Amino acid sequence: MLALIAGQGDLPRAVTGALPEPALICAMESSPPNRVVPDHLFRVEQLGSFLRWLKAQGVTRVCMCGAVGRPEIRLSRLDLPTILLLPKILRALKRGDDGALRIVIGLLEDAGFEVVGAHEAAPKLLPEAGILTRARPGPDAAQMATLADAVSHRQGLEDLGQCCVISGDEVVAREDQRGTDAMLGELPPVPGGLFYKAPKPGQERRVDLPVIGPNTAVGAIRAGLSGIVIEAGGVMVLDREAVIEMLDAAGLFLWVRERDA
């Protein structure tokens, strides 16, 4: 049986809609999902008991999807099973995003669960490589995408965001901690530029695999970009039909591209 630990955003709903069979939907009380209704809420102070409860429900696989804020721990609420996990939990809260997620994955695996990525639980969300729109990349798109590969690598080393905007040989914008929608919302017109998104090199892909969706398409269209480039096998597309329809209507391309070595 699969359990989803759902956070905020559209991804949990997209995953549940694409699953071949129903899953048990769980969520932290401090970061309840806003697109799905959870079957069970838990507190981080009772994480140990929650893991035991999952076992009792027959859960063998766990998928974490959606944005989750870092919870505050009230020591007075800790139960005994969680006290045993406390050193690892505190260490995770002090790490950067990727380091914290690796510790959480370790906790789940130590408890006997198989941790699967959203793209593994719902593979239909991961598009095939190629150009998915009527519009096609121009002759300068490949050069801009190669520059974006290098920018993505630097952002990965600094544990920053997963996307950027390139125009010619210039980096116009980089994602920060506020996320993709904030970056696109503040973007000035960039005619001919492109939006690029890919996992950070070395990123744990079972959690926090990048996504794009209709909001990304709206932001790219509003900024006058020529198109969107995403890494093949590394970025999920939510509401794919709607995204392609919007981009086709505006004359933008969507290129699912193999990353340069």
Automatic annotation (TrEMBL):
Ranges of residues in domain LpxI N-terminal: 2-125
Domain LpxI C-terminal: start-end pairs: 129-255
UniProt-recorded Gene Ontology molecular function terms: hydrolase activity
A Pfam family the protein falls into: LpxI_N
Keywords: Hydrolase
Enzyme type, top EC level: hydrolase
Tree of life domain: Bacteria
InterPro entries linked: LpxI, LpxI_C, LpxI_C_sf, LpxI_N
E.C. code: 3.6.1.54
PANTHER family per record: BLL4848 PROTEIN, LPXI FAMILY PROTEIN
Protein's recorded name: UDP-2,3-diacylglucosamine diphosphatase LpxI
